Amino acid sequence: MSIFPRISLKPEVTDYLKSVFLNKEVLAAVDHQEANCRFQKLLTCLSHPPSYTCVRASTHLAPLEEIRHKLGEELKKQQMCTSSAEEVSVQILPHPRIPDVLLLPVDGPRPVKQLSSEVMVGAQCGSAVLRGAHVFVPGILASPKYMKAGDVVSVLSDLEGRCTRGATSFQGKKVFVGNGVAQIDRSSIFCTDEPAKGIGVRMVEPLYQSPSFDGVLPNLAFLQNLPSVVVGHVLGPRPGERILDMCAAPGGKTCHIAALMRDQGEVVALDRIRNKIDRIHQNAQMLHLRSIKVYCFNSTQAVSSDPAQEAEGPPFPPESFDRVLLDAPCSGLGQRPSMSCTWSLKEICSYQPLQRKLFHAAVQLLRKGGVLVYSTCTVTLAENEEQVAWALQTFPCLTLQPQEPHIGAEGMLGAGLSPEQLRLLQRFSPELSWDQAGTAAPLPCRADRDTIGFFIAKFLKN
Q1: Which pLDDT score, from 0 to 100, does residue 80 have?
Q2: Which parts of the sequence belong to the SAM-dependent MTase RsmB/NOP-type domain (predicted)?
């Protein structure tokens, strides 16, 4: 059900995306009306959250059924603290094809009445609320002049980033995401030298009801989008291998790879941003994974020109790794819910050259007979199918491989790839089933279609 406006984009970005989804190859396969309908559905569904929460279970630490039971108990406790004495039930289902995934339905949109007392939050904070989070103090932009802890308030998301921090009201483009109870006085948010931390508004009537995972089984239940879990399985790591994760922060996929290898072998995680490296360390520690080695390093420079180099860290000699994951920096236009993207077309289109530099390094670092997986969380052709076409032309040693599991759609027309090649690609396209994504469909069926926008390609180096 559509209750939010379509994602807010700059007109030039909307026009660009429309030209992608109504390209010549697409229009030769489906009529203009159908192609345009899909595009409009994409813009709508991007502003809405998926109809379920996906949890990756740490099956290297405990059996799935045990984790499912413990999670159910924890979430029941959480619900009993926040709801009335009515019967508390938590539905948690295992994914039928992915052995370490648990699915929890999201209840929404719910009939929540908006109040006159409004707290404004940033778009990113508003999106987090739609996926079950409370409002943390740094996300608050404006609040009523005399707001005190205990006040019941409506939470609204600033769509265009125009609300002045510290304001008492805001008349710009905003959207209602639910009601909550203020945990802190206004003066403690905006009138202190030390920035306040912690929960600023505890959500009691969110528009979309899903569990808050704050502090819930942190080492056994890891929140992760379904396609991001699929990537680890498609890479297919095996115990004893040496694997490279080129753009690893915050470390969700890195930790999944190590878990799938039963923590036997070596997973090298690189990221060029220093403060993101700490997150990878924290996640590895929390999940009791010792096979992960983390380095702050720019992966475009990760190939050593000295083949005799024996240093443990980067840069590495060519053909140092059995498998390489290139989960590339991208325009992120597949993320959901996302009600607003303020980027210019130049920013949206700036990632392709960087992705190609990373590709060059990845192919050199992969041994012959090794596997390279390329993935993004965006919907453009330039960063997905066009990169595959370019890679196959640039590196004759690469061939596309079947993916397991393959639960997304095939690749999108428009990059000149053959039908056989498109079938080997995996594009998660929520717009294709947006009408059928209602809560009537069984949860596992919904889960495979109602995802973020995502793309996966798997190559073998011959």
Answers
A1: 75
A2: 146-462
CATH of the domain at 431: 3.40.50.150
Q: Which domain holds residue 420?
A: 226-461
Q: What are the tens digits of pLDDT across the range 88-114?
A: 578 999 999 999 999 999 998 999 999
Classify residue 64: in a domain, yes or no. yes
Does 86 score more than 60 pLDDT? no
Q: Is 284 within any annotated ligand binding site?
A: no
Give the Å distances, CA to CA, from 210 to 154, 173, 448. 18, 25, 18
Question: Is 421 inside a domain boundary?
Answer: yes
DSSP output for 407-432: -SB-PPSSS---HHHHHHSEEE-GGG
Q: What is the pLDDT of residues 205-240, one digit of tens each?
A: 999 998 888 889 999 999 999 999 999 999 999 999
Task: Report CA Rg, the chain.
Answer: 23
Residue 301, both tokens? 């420079």
Q: Is 195 annotated as a binding residue?
A: no
Q: Tell me if 251 is assigned to a ligand binding site.
A: yes
User: Is 330 part of a structural domain of the chain?
Assistant: yes
C-alpha 163/C-alpha 122 separation (Å) is 8
Task: Answer yes or no: do 283 and 354 share one domain.
Answer: yes
Q: Is 253 annotated as a binding residue?
A: yes
* CA separation for the pair 394, 371 (Å, rounded): 17
Average pLDDT over residues 388-417: 98
The total number of residues shown for the chain amounts to 462
Burial class (CB in 10 A: 0-12, 13-18, 19+), 400: buried
pLDDT band of 85, cuts 50, 70, 90:
very low
Active site (catalytic) residues: 377
pLDDT of residue 83: 57
Domain count, the chain: 3
Write the DSSP assignment of 59-74 as a string of letters. TTTS-HHHHHHHHHHH
Instruction: Report pTM.
Output: 0.95
Assign 233 to helix, strand or coil: helix
**pLDDT tens-digit series, residues 283-294:** 999 999 999 999
Q: Do 354 and 427 reside in the same domain of the chain? A: yes
Q: Return the residue matching tokens 């403060």.
A: 275
- Strands 292-296 and 321-327, sheet pairing: unpaired
